[in-house]
């Protein structure tokens, strides 16, 4: 569902699990069938379109904790309703999950310069003064709400422009292992590593 004038929803949970048949090749090139269980979500909206994740794609995910998330992983996070209301002047969120690309946990004493190094090391580009201001403003806003809570830095896109998010580590729910979609009626599976390439 989309509300007029509001950024499209990122995720809605579709089903609790999906079994996916995969053909896996070992070091000798021998192939075998393997079945894996995933928690699935359906992407709704275009906030990860620059990374090749389109509305309607099924995310195949596994539960994860923040300490197991690596740089560049795609993660599903829960929406913190209280922070959403704080940030959006009382609006109630109309979705429960968001899709983000992980940068990593940040230290309590992190500065904008520290974060700049993390971001520029991840995306191999230099942040301009507006992007640095946005990064600093987002950190200040999160720190004013969460205090000394451990925060995690991730990215999404708004109208194709990168946007930085800070959220508590404990609301990270799942790691994306791959996406599934139909191309001309044929099922397609892409590993998460293919998305970032």
Molecular structure report:
With 197 residues, the chain is α+β, with helices and mostly antiparallel strands. It has one domain. The chain has 4 helices and 9 strands. Strands 1, 2, 3, 4, 5, 6, 7, 8 and 9 form a 9-stranded antiparallel β-sheet that branches. Strand 8 (172-183) and strand 9 (186-191) form a beta hairpin.
* Alpha-beta classification: alpha+beta
Low-confidence stretches: 1-15
Number of domains: 1
Q: Write down the overall mean pLDDT.
A: 81
Measured between the Cα atoms of the first and last residue, the distance is 31 Å
> So how many helices?
4
Largest sheet: 9 strands, antiparallel
Strand coverage percent? 35-45%
Give Rg in angstroms. 18 Å
Helix content: 10-25%
* Broad shape: globular
- Run of helices and strands: EEEEHEHHEEEEH
Number of strands: 9
Task: Tag the structure with descriptive keywords.
single chain; 197 residues; alpha+beta; 9 strands; 21% helix; globular
């Amino acid at each position: 569902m989309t509300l007029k004038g509001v950024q499209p929803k990122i995720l809605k949970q579709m089903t609790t699990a999906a079994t996916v048949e995969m053909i896996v090749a070992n070091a000798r090139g021998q192939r075998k069938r393997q079945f894996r269980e995933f928690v699935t979500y359906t992407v709704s909206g275009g906030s990860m379109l620059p990374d090749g994740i389109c509305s309607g794609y099924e995310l195949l995910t596994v539960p994860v904790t923040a300490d197991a998330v690596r740089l560049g992983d795609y993660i599903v996070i829960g929406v913190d309703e209280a922070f959403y209301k704080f940030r959006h002047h009382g609006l109630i969120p109309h979705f429960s999950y968001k899709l983000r690309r992980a940068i990593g946990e940040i230290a309590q004493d992190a500065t904008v310069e520290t974060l700049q190094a993390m971001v520029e090391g991840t995306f191999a580009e230099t942040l301009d003064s507006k992007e640095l201001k946005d990064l600093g403003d987002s950190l200040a806003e999160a720190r004013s709400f969460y205090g000394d809570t451990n925060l995690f830095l991730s990215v999404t896109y708004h109208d194709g422009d990168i946007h930085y998010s800070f959220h508590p580590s404990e609301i990270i729910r799942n790691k994306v292992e791959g996406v599934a979609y139909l191309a001309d009626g044929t099922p397609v599976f892409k590993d998460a590593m293919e998305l970032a390439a």
